[in-house]
Amino acid sequence: MSSDKKRTIFFNLLLMIASIIATLLITECIFRLVSPQNLTGSWFVSTDSGLLVNKSSGTAKHQHGDRVVRYSFYEPNFRGAPPKENGIKILVVGDSFTFGLLLDEEDTYVYHLQQHTDKEFGTGVCQYLNAAVGGWGTADYVAYIEDFGNIVKPDIILVFFNGMNINRSVNRGIYTLSDKTN
């Protein structure tokens, strides 16, 4: 193959790569102008057993349209305030309603429960530990307690439940009944 033909092939490949890069950059600019996407960080992690939980430390930004919220997380996988040593531990499990999706911490009903409990019984007597995760069903609640119950050692487990929870549990298939009739 002649050196002119090699140069032509090299130039054509280089031109093709440059065209692809330019097309991708132009497409990105068009999407950012016409249909900008929300910027949201991830706060989900998967346990060794495959259960989806909140991360166990740090913060995450969640944006939907003009609404921007920052979530704070603490061990083991709680949203809200860090766990305290003393007092009655009330483990709260539920789905996105209980988690407080797109709500500041002070607007979640777990936070309001804490405020009312503190007012009624005194600060520090009880602590609500919000382990809820968006998309959870009843089977996920049980799996979380199996995985983290010995770490959390709750005095009370408070389950927030809605009609979607059963459907999610059935679809997830974490627990199933066997057909054996022995």
Structure description:
It is built from five helices and eight strands, in the order H-E-E-E-E-E-E-H-H-E-H-E-H. It is an alpha/beta fold and 182 residues long. It is 40% helix and 21% strand. The protein has a three-stranded antiparallel beta sheet with strand order 3-4-5, with no helix packed on it. A three-stranded parallel beta sheet has the order 7-6-8, covered by helices on one side. Strands 1-2 form a two-stranded antiparallel sheet. It has helices at 3-34, 96-99, 109-121, 138-152, 164-172, and strands at 44-46, 52-54, 58-64, 67-74, 78-79, 88-93, 126-130, 156-159.
Secondary-structure-derived class: alpha/beta
Alpha carbon gap, first and last residue: 77 Å
Q: Work out the number of β strands.
A: 8
- Main pleated sheet: 3 strands, antiparallel
Strand order of the largest sheet: 3-4-5
What is the chain-wise order of helices and strands?
HEEEEEEHHEHEH
What is the global morphology? elongated
On the 0 to 100 scale, the average pLDDT is 89
Question: Could you estimate the helical fraction of the residues in percent?
Answer: 40-55%
Give the tags.
8 strands; 3-stranded parallel beta sheet; alpha/beta; 5 helices; 3-stranded antiparallel beta sheet
Structure in a nutshell:
This protein is of the alpha/beta class. 40% of the residues lie in helices and 21% in strands. The mean pLDDT is 89.
